[in-house]
Every structure is written in structure tokens, then in C-alpha cells.
Amino acid sequence: MARPLIPAAAGIAWLAAAVVYVGTEAIAASAFPGYSYSANYISDLGVPDVAEYQGRAIDSPLHAVMNAGFILQGILYLAAAVIATRALRAGPRRAFLALAAVHAVGITVVGLIHGSASSAASGIGWMHVVGAGMAIIAGNAASIVAGLGSGRVGVARAIRVASVALGVVGLVALALLEALGGSTIDGIWERGSVYTVTAWELMAGVAVLVAARRHRARPHG
Fold first, then answer.
1. Which among 14, 52, 155, 216 is placed 20 to 30 Å from 41, CA to CA?
2. Which residues cross the membrane (predicted)?
3. In which region does residue 49 sit, left (phi positive, over 0), alpha (psi from -120 to 50) or beta (all else)?
4. Measured between alpha carbons, how far is 96 from 140 in angstroms, rounded to an integer?
5. Number of CB atoms found within 10 A of residue 2's CB
6. Helix (H), strand (E) at residue 197
């Protein structure tokens, strides 16, 4: 029996999601005076207010770029998940798709409701925190689910192990952020929980495109 082929479109969407995320982050950070990848939160880049919040000076002229990046990343991640799961007939398709949807909703909330003094004052700041938690936990959990279940659809062992490892590292980093938060290296813990999802997108995207290319090169008759 031939292994099910995930369409190349899914791989392209996952790669695009990763590039969009780190790209918009870098662009927004370049315009933020004194922005620190180790001390500042990623979502500081999406705050439209110029103010101080939780001891951090916030001034992100390109906040719209970062917020667009948050939302577009979620859309691309979910689109890839839909394309991939529709092509498969085995493995934890429903669980992965559900987690992908939670991730997309969470990161969209992050892009729409900011972690800022004005959000806190208006009583909606908690929604930003919940959205970030949804995006981080579901994104890393999806990586773990994909790694544990994708052996049934012929994914290489190395990719499965790396997938689980990335998800676990991301969740551990989130736990460290919660336990040690409030320090000058919060940005490191946060990025440890977010970039694992980005790394998974890159890995999955490349794996899907390589498999699609091999399939096209294989003689069919």
C-alpha cells in the first residue's frame, strides 16, 4: 500500500508561517528603541501604546506589522493542518487539527488584544494572557501529537523524535517562564516556548516538500 502523500501546499504554508513570524518580529524589533530579545516579550512588539508596562518601556512604531504577523502565522498554520489532515487516513488527525485550531485562535487573540497597560486598565488584559497560553500550549502539544502518531503514516523516526522533543522543550520553557517570570530574561523563556513551534513548522514544511518532490520523481505506471 502506498503511503499517503501530504500535498506540497501544506509544506509551503508551514514554511511561510515560520518565515512570516520571525520576519515580522525582526522588522518590528528593528524599529523598537532598545528592544531586547532576552528581556522583552514578543507581544511587546504588538502594543500600539507608548508607555511603561510591568517595568518595560514599550514603544513599537511598527506594532501593526507584528500583529499582522501573529494573525497570519495562525492562519497559515491552520491552513496547513487542514490540508495535511484531509490527505491522511490514519494517525491522530482529529487531535492534531483540534490543537492547530486552538493555536490559531490563541495567536489571533494575541494579535488583536495586546498585553499593555491600556488593556489591563480596561479589564481585557487577561484575554491576551489566555490567548498566548492557548497558542503556546496547543502549538507545542500539536508537535507532540504529530510526533507520537505520525509513525502510522510513514514519517521517519528522526522527524517523529524531533517533533516530540520540540514540543516537550517548548512546554518546559513555558513552565520555566511561569515559575521564574519577572526577571530580566523573561524573553528567553518565552522564546523557548514559541520558537519550538516555529522550528516544528520549518521541519514539517521541509519534510512535506521533500516527500512531495520524491513522489513526483518516482516512476508511476
1. 14
2. 62-83, 95-114, 126-149, 161-180, 192-212
3. beta
4. 11
5. 7
6. helix 186-217
Per residue, the 3-state secondary structure of the chain, as one string, reads: CCCCCCCHHHHHHHHHHHHHHHHHHHHHHHCCCCCCCCCCCHHHHHCCCCEEECCEEECCCCHHHHHHHHHHHHHHHHHHHHHHHHHCCCCCHHHHHHHHHHHHHHHHHHHHCCCCHHHHHCCCHHHHHHHHHHHHHHHHHHHHHHHHHHHHHCCCHHHHHHHHHHHHHHHHHHHHHHHHCCCCCHHHHHHHHHHHHHHHHHHHHHHHHHHHHHHHHCCCC
Q: Which three cell numbers stand for residue 160?
A: 517523529
Residue bearing cell 522583552: 40
| Cα-based angle 108, 113, 118 (whole degrees, multiple of 5) | 170
3-state secondary structure of 51: strand
Tens of pLDDT, residue by residue, the chain (221 residues): 345 588 999 999 999 999 999 999 999 999 999 999 999 999 999 999 999 999 899 999 999 999 999 999 999 999 999 999 998 877 788 999 999 999 999 999 999 999 999 999 999 999 999 999 999 999 999 999 999 987 777 788 999 999 999 999 999 999 999 999 888 899 999 999 999 999 999 999 999 999 888 767 766 54
